[in-house]
Amino acid sequence: MAPACRSGNQAHTSILCSTAALSAVFVDGQRQSRGVSWEIAVLREPHGRGGSQWIFDSLHAASKVRVRGPRNHFALEPAPNYLFVAGGIGITPIRAMVAAAERAGIPWRLLYGGRRASSMAYVDELVSNYGDKVLIRPEDQFGLLDLAGLVTAAPPGTKLYCCGPEPLLAAAERQCTTEVAC
Q1: Tens place of pLDDT per residue across the chain (182 aa)
Q2: Which of 48, 71, 94 represents a domain boundary (last residue)?
Q3: Which own/partner pairs from 177-182 qualify as long-range (CB within 8 Å, at least 24 positions apart)?
């Protein structure tokens, strides 16, 4: 088992699969106070290299696996305010950042989109824990995320963190101004 991440952080790791394929996943460090277990989120990719299918077909809660990592290329930097944007499985690292910002008492908002509400992970938990700080916007009900409205309303000095598919990342970058650090 690799060393645990600091509490409240997320990290990227690879699970060594029996198929020899590596499946990159995000590890949620907010539950690592025990130092012996990780919570991971994996999107099943039927046309991938086989790693996610192996995880879904072979693993269960409390399974022991070999991993590489963790490594964090997406650390939460200090800021007076945060704006989090997540698309699909991109909620996984953002979820850990939201929890860290909440514990630190730093103001934040989350805009979370996905194709359909039924395919969006952690929705009930996020709404239950954080209420109106969280905007859940499935595309089949609301269309594309309103990044412009959220970014425009962000207070000066706000840092924006976005994780999701490439078109979402590109749209978020286009919305950034000198008032919002991306």
Answers
A1: 233 333 344 555 666 665 544 445 555 544 444 555 666 777 777 787 777 787 788 887 777 777 776 666 677 899 999 999 999 989 988 998 999 999 999 999 999 999 999 999 999 999 999 999 999 999 999 999 999 998 888 898 899 999 999 999 999 988 886 445 55
A2: 71
A3: 177/151, 179/154, 180/83, 180/151, 180/154, 181/79, 181/157
Do 36 and 104 fall into the same domain? no
Quick one: tokens of 107?
């103001």
Specify whether 58 is located in the same domain as 98: no
Contacting residues for 74 by C-beta, under 8 A, at least 6 apart = 10, 12, 93, 161, 163
